[in-house]
Design brief:
signal; UPF0319; DUF2057 domain-containing protein; alpha+beta
Length: about 130
């Protein structure tokens, strides 16, 4: 019984101090702090307070007609920021047509919003490898 109450209290305190991250359609999170996850479009992810390193990519579907469509994908990008307890963050994308999305996918810059300004660092895989060997 004591173990159950401790576990219940720990989970309650985590949820009270957790931050949330809302994702726009077209953003797919692959991992958070090294833990692989799978997210659905327009989903919300719960984050612990503190440093967050998120691997993500742009992945969107454009439909031209009844049977014509195109997926537009970026490579994996890394986003790093510090999450504050009870804060709500949003990763947002600009409104884009398919041509704009193709250009965006080549060099995506993800925007993050919160109730206070969020300091975000972003790298693609090549930039991250370069940073490791500086």
């Amino acid at each position: 019984m004591k173990t159950y109450l401790c576990a219940l209290f720990a989970s309650a305190s985590f949820s009270l101090s957790a931050a949330t991250l809302e994702l726009d359609d077209g953003i797919q999170i692959l991992a958070i702090n090294g833990q692989t996850i799978s997210t659905a479009p327009s989903s919300t992810v719960t984050l612990a307070s503190g440093a967050q390193v998120i691997a993500l990519r742009y992945h969107d579907l454009f439909e031209y007609g009844f049977e014509q469509h195109e997926f537009v994908n970026s490579g994996v990008h890394i986003v790093k920021f510090d999450a504050t307890a009870n804060e709500r963050y949003q990763l947002v994308l600009p409104d884009m047509n398919v041509e704009q999305a193709r250009r965006f996918a080549l060099q995506p810059k993800f925007s993050m919003h919160g109730s206070v300004p969020v300091q975000v660092e972003q790298w693609d895989q090549n930039q991250l490898l370069s940073k490791l060997f500086e």
